[in-house]
Amino acid sequence: LKAVVIGLGYVGLPMAVEMAQAGYRVHGIDIDAFKVTRLRAGDSYVIGIEDEIIQSLTQAGLFTAGTDYAAVTQADVIVICVPTPLTAAHQPDISYIAAAVDGMTPYLKEGSLVILESTTYPGTTEEHVKQPLEAATGWRVGEQFYVCYSPERVDPGSVNYGVKNTPKIIGGSTPACLSYGKEFYGSFLNEIVPVSSTTVAETAKLFENTFRSVNIALVNELTPACEQMGVNIWEVLDAAATKPFGYMPFYPGPGIGGHCIPIDPIYLSWAANRQGSDLQFITLADATNRQMPERVVQRAAALLEQAGTRVQGARVVLAGMAYKKDIDDLRESPALDVFRLLSAAGAEVVFTDPMVPVFRKDDGTVLQSQPAVPGLWAWADLVIITTDHSGFNYQEMADHAKLIFDTRNATAGCHGGHIVVLGQPDRS
Ligand code: SAJ
Hints:
Oligomer: single chain
Number of strands: 15
Protein name: Nucleotide sugar dehydrogenase
Distance between the termini: 65 Å
Keywords: NAD, Oxidoreductase
Largest sheet: 8 strands, mixed
Domain UDP-glucose/GDP-mannose dehydrogenase C-terminal: 317-413
InterPro entries: 6-PGluconate_DH-like_C_sf, NAD(P)-bd_dom_sf, UDP-Glc/GDP-Man, UDP-Glc/GDP-Man_DH_C, UDP-Glc/GDP-Man_DH_C_sf, UDP-Glc/GDP-Man_DH_dimer, UDP-Glc/GDP-Man_DH_N, UDP_ManNAc/GlcNAc_DH
Bound molecules: ligand SAJ
Pfam family, one: UDPG_MGDP_dh_C
Order of helices and strands: EHEHHEEHEHEEHEHHHHHEHEEEHEHEE
């Protein structure tokens, strides 16, 4: 069987590889010619997908990449894995899905199965995949072609869960669509979770990540209250986590980043809102999480003042720019907001991140990651641990830094040094 994957990012490329390893002839399509060039050179840009896998699948004739939609004419299965960001107005942006559907329409082969995997609001598959394809081809879904929705569930950087062993939810536009989709995914994935419609599948995905956002917001909201009550929230959460049933740990931080947790709940609240429902937990969680960078900067400024240093001109090192531990992704990273706010307050801010070599500031200048050496910690008036990468030597940081503000409780095992931890009453 031949398959096409549209969108070769952190979702599409692992899916394409998994399908090719199962013996499908896979052609990946991406609008970014640079990605295609790198893949054709056997060079992977996705954590967890090694160059050797791309090379061996290419040599076996099981994987090719290109930018042209014409390859869809050969495809029995087309999987769409394109981004679903927010617009500047904080609304769902499904323009990438619409562009993928427009691009493939002229080439759709009768009898083929189209699967949307991008995280999106309930109704997207019916309104923006099934309906346009029926209108353009004159075919009827479930007869001359098939449409399913199956959300991606990759956890970037995870070593335990990958495409193959993460249960796969799938909904079809018709029962015939669902049975085709189950047969396809069932041929190479461990567990299939069929549901009664594409809309149920879309909503389940959004709920999973909204659940995370709301619970992260809960511990973020509790953090200043614990500081004021003189209670160490990390100790509270560790004690609560001993509950063997009915509990799942979440921890405070400098805010939430990535392309899922800050965004998916907004898709859900937008969809509920257009039907007249107002999901207040989502609105409150979003506001609470989004104010964390500012809270971090306010506390950092207070710590500097207590140390006799004005924020204006203070030397600050951000340890970690990536949005979460041990990955290289900057999207929506709260560290970027902390950087912006401190720079706006006149501090001299630099960063060090073993996973992120450079980042582009808003004014377009490119900043290099500083080497994480004792001299850097000693140079700073304040070191803020924004991302708890395993690659940092936290004891060395404690030994050489004048002052550390730890927003991830990464220094829990350290001794000595002047360390203030978010959510802990000030130990000094
Ligand atoms: N965060 C906290 N406190 C927490 C957990 C996360 O502040 O207790 C922050 C992280 O630092 C990060 C953001 O929230 O900035 C998102 O963290 P995440 O662990 O949810 O990481 P993601 O965005 O990589 O989430 C992915 C999601 N996968 C998909 O949507 C397909 C999510 O569903 C997974 O549950 C999550 O990975 C995971 O389990 O790690």
